């Protein structure tokens, strides 16, 4: 066993690393991925964090914005340390939260209906990473009972799941694998959302959800996927009901080509296991750990992050004027992509 002195030294080093915004807690595998895919190293990370914090401190449109390394790194990593793009993603993220405040604020897992939906197994993360080191987000469509739960319950469970996972730096680097078994999914789950709500939750722009205030709605077409700093690497579907194929096509076509290429539909579990390591799945899907145990562990993980997730409501975007839309008009009246109006230098992005 390590000596007390050695243990104390390790704790001091970890504390120093946290203060410097370093990622000492990352596994060797994640460090290698960060370097190869995100072009992240100590120097790049610390310089980007300092510049990001300076920008937030000077930005009068931001109020109570978190500046801890873990929070800011989720935006830097998803944009491969392009500071201007990370800044834009932060603004869009805050704008999304306020536009859909009724769905995204008050992410309290102890709300009875939300707790019941999580306990049912509708959406949870496997405690076992897949063969590529990613957390696997598991969705069981048949567990969503429209007679018991509302679209607000559904949205809160999704947001609690994503915020909990994004708060882990290993996940920020490695990305996520999604698995959804749609057997038993009721078409009523689709009609819980108006077509306008459904479309704008995927790719939202000039209007907020019907009947809701829109203090910071964007003027332009901004994808939800560009507002949530997550690296979606694989999306697997099992038992897609034929009547819901049109919903799948509708949703899929509103994602970027890069994300669409990562969607896979499987007709059998054997076909699924050829692409997704079954050991990260519940025993009911060929893995080793019972689903009930996975859900219990997931609820413990959520509870450990609850305070940080609830504190997200303190952040405010006072104006959306700094958000660059697809076409931004400059003072001379001409249009441009808007990227030149942001301070900082771009690093060329490749598809990861």
TrEMBL record:
Q: What is the name listed in the Swiss-Prot or TrEMBL entry for this protein?
A: Clavesin-2 isoform X1
Q: Which InterPro entries match?
A: CRAL-TRIO_dom, CRAL-TRIO_dom_sf, CRAL/TRIO_N_dom, CRAL/TRIO_N_dom_sf
User: GO: which molecular function terms?
Assistant: phosphatidylinositol bisphosphate binding
Q: Name one GO cellular component term.
A: membrane
CDD domains (UniProt xref): SEC14
Native source species: Thrips palmi (Melon thrips)
Q: Which domain of life is it from?
A: Eukaryota
| Domain named CRAL-TRIO: residues | 110-293
Q: Which PANTHER family match?
A: ALPHA-TOCOPHEROL TRANSFER PROTEIN-RELATED, CELLULAR RETINALDEHYDE BINDING PROTEIN
């Amino acid at each position: 066993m390590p000596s007390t002195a050695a243990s104390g030294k390790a704790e001091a080093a970890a504390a120093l690393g946290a203060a410097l915004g370093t990622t000492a807690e990352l596994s060797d595998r994640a460090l290698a991925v960060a370097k190869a895919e995100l072009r992240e190293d100590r120097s790049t990370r610390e310089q980007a964090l300092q510049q990001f914090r300076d920008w937030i401190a000077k930005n009068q449109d931001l109020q109570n914005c978190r500046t801890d390394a873990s929070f800011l790194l989720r935006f830097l990593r998803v944009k491969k340390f392009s500071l201007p793009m990370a800044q834009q993603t932060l603004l869009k993220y805050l704008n999304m939260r306020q536009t859909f405040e009724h769905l995204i604020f008050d992410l309290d897992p102890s709300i009875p209906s939300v707790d019941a939906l999580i306990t049912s197994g509708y959406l949870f993360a496997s405690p076992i990473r897949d063969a590529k080191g990613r957390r696997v987000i598991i969705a069981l469509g048949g567990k969503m009972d429209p007679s018991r739960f509302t679209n607000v319950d559904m949205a809160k469970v999704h947001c609690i799941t994503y915020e909990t996972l994004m708060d882990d730096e290993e996940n920020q680097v490695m990305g996520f694998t999604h698995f959804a078994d749609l057997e038993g999914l009721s078409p009523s789950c689709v009609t819980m959302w108006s077509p306008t709500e459904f479309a704008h939750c995927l790719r939202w722009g000039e209007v907020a959800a019907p009947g809701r205030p829109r203090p910071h709605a964007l003027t332009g077409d901004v994808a939800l996927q560009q507002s949530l700093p997550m690296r979606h690497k694989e999306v697997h579907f099992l038992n897609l009901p034929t009547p819901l194929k049109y919903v799948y096509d509708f949703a899929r076509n509103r994602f970027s080509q890069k994300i669409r290429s990562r969607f896979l539909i499987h007709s059998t579990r054997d076909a699924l296991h050829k692409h997704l390591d079954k050991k990260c799945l519940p025993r009911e899907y060929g893995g080793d750990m019972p689903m009930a145990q996975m859900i219990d562990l997931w609820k413990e993980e959520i509870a450990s992050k609850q305070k940080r997730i609830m504190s997200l409501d303190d952040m405010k975007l006072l104006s959306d004027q700094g958000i660059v839309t697809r076409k931004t008009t400059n003072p001379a009246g001409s249009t441009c992509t808007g990227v030149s109006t942001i301070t900082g230098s771009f690093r060329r992005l490749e598809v990861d």
